[in-house]
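Posting for a labmate who doesn't have an account.
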Amino acid sequence: MNFKQYLLIITLIFSACTASHAQLSAKLGIEGGISASNVNITPAATTDPVTGPVFGASVDLNFINILSVSTGVFYVPKGYTSKNQNITFNTKLNYIEIPLLVKVGIPLILIKPYVFAGPTFGFNLSAEEVQSNGQQTTNVDISNKIESSETCILMGAGVDVNFSKKSAFFVQAAFSVGLSNMLKNTPGVTMKSYGIRVTGGLRFNL
């Protein structure tokens, strides 16, 4: 599937669910934070993590008080740094990511702790390698070496803090593990992402 097909499926699911609003409730979320990502390369190679901002919007569909399904659209930077002699390589990979998560929460009086897990589908926006020897810097487009899409598993936990009947503040932390090879046309070599992200934001009842 391509990016447009994923958006169409999510739109259809959301439309069907909101059409039966008597049985379901929905929440719109605005979210932002920071991520630290790295890669596992086989055969083994030494890499260091990179950090960057994560932001986007989500929709939670609540089936019952403790169970919901969450999706959305997020900007997620990934990549790594490595060294070869006196040259540093900073690989920057930018993605639009669509999660499909199952959330289980425990509603209390003012807060709702929750856990979540599920797949994410990423679509590469750009791929760049910045090479530096300390005196000169060269930017190299490596889009032809990176697959256009990536599938990961995202899992984490968070807490909603209600400050009105229709809105809540939330913070959460998550761990992502790549399932697919990010490299294109590289027989015998695989590269899969992993990382952590800490985000917060606001949720509003629809």
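Reply:
Got it, the structure tokens are right above this. The chain has a mean pLDDT of 89.
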